[in-house]
Amino acid sequence: MSDISVSKLANGVTVISEKITYVKSFSLGLWVNTGSLFETPDNNGISHFIEHMVFKGTKTRSAKKISDEIESLGGYLNAFTSKENTCFYGRGLNSHFGKTFEVISDLILNPLFKPADIKKEAGVVIDELHDIEDSPEEIIFEIFETELFKKTCYELPIIGTEETISNFSQSKLFNYISKQYATDNILICASGMIEHEACLKLANKYFSSLPHKSIPKKKKIVIQNSGNKKVKKDIQQSHFILGKSTVGYDNSSRTAINLMSHILGGGSSSRLFQSLRERNGITYQINSFLNSFFDISSFGIYFSTNPHLTAKAISIIKKELTKINSGDIKKSELDKAKEFMKGSLTMNLENITNRMMKIAQSYLYFNKVKLYDDVINEINNVDLEKINYFAKQLCNPDSFIQISIEPK
Question: For 16, 22, 42, 385, which has the most beta carbons within 10 A of its beta carbon?
Answer without folding.
Answer: 16
